[in-house]
Amino acid sequence: VSPDKRKSNKEVIMVDPLEAKRLAAKQMEQIKAKEKFKKQRQIEAINGAWAMIGLTAGIVIEGHTGNSIPAQ
After folding, report:
1. I need a labelling partner for 50 at 20 to 30 A (CA). Which of 27, 41, 43, 67 fits?
2. Which InterPro entries match (predicted)?
3. What is the residue-wise DSSP string for 9-43?
């Protein structure tokens, strides 16, 4: 295959400065959205871990005292 026939997905296209600025802003929004989603998933994972720790503690205390979790 000759180099002329190969095309990459990241092909550079010459555009006017305003179009380049618009494309850059769009790409920045996509990056920020991905980062926000990643951060939300991390927060949910931490929250879930604390919930499991709390439930485990409640079950252990229930086993020792005989009181149900709501009665504690």
Report:
1. 67
2. PSII_Assembly/Photoprotect-Rel
3. TT------HHHHHHHHHHHHHHHHHHHHHHHHHHH
